[in-house]
Amino acid sequence: MINTHVEPDAELAAIAQPTVYIETYGCQMNVSDSELMYGTLAAHGYAQVDGPDGADVILVNTCAIRENAETRVIGRLGELKRNMKPGAIVGVTGCMAQRLGPRLLQQAKHVSLVVGPDAYRALPQLLDGARHGERFSATDFDLEEHYEDVVAKRFEGVKAWIPVQRGCNYRCTYCIVPYTRGSERSRKLDDVVRETHAVVAQGLTEVVLLGQTVNSYNDGTHDFADLLRAVGAVDGIRRVRYTSPHPNDFSDRVIAAMAEVPTVCEHVHLPMQSGSTSMLKRMLRRYSREDYLACVGRLRAAIPGLALTTDIIVGFPGETDAEFADTVSLCQEVRFNDAFMFKFSMREGTPATRMPAEWTVPDAVVTERFDRLLGTVRGISREQNLMRLGATVEVLVEKIARDGHLWQARSRDFKTVMVPADSAKIGDYLTVQLTGTTGATFTGTPVKPRERAPLPMAAGAA
Ligand code: SAH
Ligand code: SF4
Ligand code: F3S
Q: What is the Cβ-side half-sphere exposure of residue 28, based on CA atoms within 13 angstroms?
C-alpha cells in the first residue's frame, strides 16, 4: 500500500452522513462489485446518491480490457475534476486501478484512492484516511476474499448478479483480466445458495451467476453442475443465467444440469474469439475450431431452442486473410443469435506484447474486416429474428425503454422484446406474441393476462 500525505480537508471531516456515488464501467463483474462497494459503504454510514454532483465521495469503478475503456476513464476523471464539489474525494477502483496502482496517483493529483478488486473491504478505512489528506494505492490480491459478509446493494429491478467465482486461471495471450483479477477461486455453494434465497426475499426472480470462466466453478466439493441444480431449485427463482462460460469447461455434467433444470434459461454466451485453429493457438484459447463446433453441437443436442451468442476479436497479431475467413465461416456455420465483436487492443504486460512487431495487423485492414464481420453477424441475426415472428414467448419486464412509452422485456433465450407500457409493470412475467422486429429487437403483444411478480417478503424474512 502506498501512502502519500497531503493537507487534510477540514470540510469533509465535518460531514455527518457522507454521500457516495459510484460510476461503473466494464463487465457485469464490475457492476456486481459496485453493488458490494455500496453495501460496504452503507454499513459504514454512507448514503448512496445517483450522480457525482454534490457527492462527498466519487468512485470510478474501471475496466482495463481494451485501451479505449481506459481512455474513457481518463477523460471522465478530468471531467469530474472540473465539476466535483470542492473537497470531494475521488477514488478509482476496479481493473484499471489494479493495473496502474500508484501510477494513477501520480498521473491524477485529484485522485486520493486507487483500490483493486480484492481490497474493497478496506474502503471505509481508506476513505477515512483520504478525508485526512492521505492518498492510497491498495492493490494486493486476496485469494480468500469473496465479500461473504457484505450485503450487496443491488441496482437492477428484476435480476440479481451473483458472483460465484473471482479471477481467472486461463492466460489467453490478449487478455489483461488474469493480471487485474488474479487467480481463479470459487465461492462455497452454500454461500451462493444463501444469497439466492436473500435475492428471492427482495422480490427478485432472476439470477445471473458470474465468473470469468464460470463453468469451471469448483468449490472443492461441488462443480458448476451442482451449483446450477442448487440455485435453480431455490423456491421463487424463475430464471437462472450465467456468464461467461469457457468452451473447455462444458462437461457432460454441466450440460445435463442445464438441460434438466427448468429454471436455467435456454441461452449460452459462448466466447469463440476466432474461428481459426492456428489463431486460437496463438491466443492460447486451448481449443480448436473443431472443438468449439463440437461444444456447440453437444449443447444444441441437449437443449432444444438454445440461443447462442459470442465474443469475437478481430485483428489479433498475425491474423491472415485465411484466418479471418475462418472466423466469418464459423459464424455462418454456427449461426449465432448475436455477437459482440472487438478490434484487438494490445494490453501492457500480456503475452501478445511479445509477439513479433511485423504480426501487427494494419488499422485499415482491421476496420475492413471488422465491418465485414459485423455485416455477416447482423445479417444472420436478422434472418433468425424474422423467422421467430409470430412465436409466443414468456418475457420478464426489465425496465422502461428509452422512448418512455414501452417497457423493455427479455425472453428466456435473451431476446429483447418491447411491450406496451400499460400492459405490465417491471418484474412482471408476460406471455407475448412476437409481432415485429427491427432485425435486432422485437415488439411483442401480450396474449395472456399478466402474472404479477411475487411480492417481497416481510423485512427480516431472509
Ligand atoms: N472471461 C471471458 C471474457 C472476458 S473479457 C471469457 O473468457 O470469455 C470479454 C471479451 O473482451 C472477451 O471475450 C474478448 O472477446 C474481449 N477482449 C479481451 N481482451 C481483449 C483485447 N485485448 N482486445 C480486444 N478484445 C478483447
Ligand atoms: Fe481473459 Fe481468457 Fe480468462 Fe476470459 S478466459 S478472462 S479471455 S484470460
Ligand atoms: Fe473489464 Fe475487469 Fe471486467 S478488465 S471486462 S472490468 S474483469
A: 19
